[in-house]
Amino acid sequence: MKTGHFLVALVSIPVFASLAAFAGAPDAKGSPSDAEIVAKVRAFYAGASDYQAAFVQTIAHKMFQGRLERAYGRVLFKRGGLMRWEYHRPDKKLFIYDGKTLWIYEPEVPQVFAGTGDTERYRRALAFLTGESDLTQEYRVARLPSDAFGFAQGFVLGLTPKDRKSPFDHVELYVSSADFHVVRSVLVDREGNRNRLDFENPLVGKGLDPALFTFTPPKGVPVITNPQ
Q1: I need a surface site. Which of 75, 120, 140, 195 has the fewest CB within 10 A?
Q2: Which residue segments constitute the domains of the chain, with CATH numbers given?
């Protein structure tokens, strides 16, 4: 899994935060209204001190129909803007944001990237855990037909950035009807490439050790600062 794919995926994470204040029209069929769905999604995350889940990331390239790149791992978030992404296969990688620096460790190279710029971007990426951010002014939110998206077991929300300079076209959020957590997010860029994250076995408020969100480069491993 290329480092760039992970960083692109981070751009989509802030859309969770935009769910905090979105309100839509009631559903005539008797299912929850858009506003109710959004409120329940917010409730799942807002009171959490931390969040963890297994994930599967699937990259589908528009130019290479039928060719998929998959990676598997675990993601951990903690209140205060902390995150840890562990890629287990096919390549081992570790991404840690400690509130100031984004660390990217590739043990199979080996090398470490340390980025200290644009910290606000990464803090906002975790805002859905605390309800800190309201991005509804940046996105148009619409309920999408679940059956058409092959997700009859839940609800699908589409978010389209209002900023024409945004690097992505839209984001799809797949919401469980059982407990209203987001089980899948799909980022579609301007070229039609799809970056899909499926979250499995989520755990909320388990008291994650703060040490999980710190990183010290291994001795002898080169550190490259401020990667692009």
Answers
A1: 120
A2: 3-225 (2.50.20.10)
Separation in Å, CA 152 to CA 38, 104, 144, 149: 18, 37, 11, 8
| Cβ-based neighbour number of residue 228 at 10 Å | 7
The helix/strand/coil state of 23 is coil
Q: What residue has token string 């995350």?
A: 45
Could you tell me if 53 and 203 are in contact, meaning their C-beta atoms sit under 8 angstroms apart?
Answer: yes
What gap in Å lies between CA 165 and CA 154, rounded to an integer? 31
Judge whether 26 and 109 are in contact, CB under 8 Å.
no
CB atoms within 10 A of CB 147: 9
Task: Indicate whether this model's pTM tops 0.85.
Answer: no
State the DSSP H helix or E strand holding residue 35, giving kind and residue range, or none if neither. Answer: helix 34-46
Please give the Cα distance from 75 to 93 (Å, whole number). 12
Distance in angstroms (rounded) separating the CA atoms of residues 91 and 115: 21
In tens digits, the chain (228 residues) has pLDDT values of 455 555 445 544 444 433 433 334 444 456 788 778 877 877 777 777 888 999 999 999 888 887 899 999 999 988 877 889 999 999 999 999 888 888 999 999 999 999 865 555 555 544 544 444 444 556 777 899 999 999 998 999 888 888 787 777 888 889 999 888 889 988 888 889 999 999 999 898 899 999 999 999 999 999 998 754
Type and span of the H or E element at 43: helix 34-46
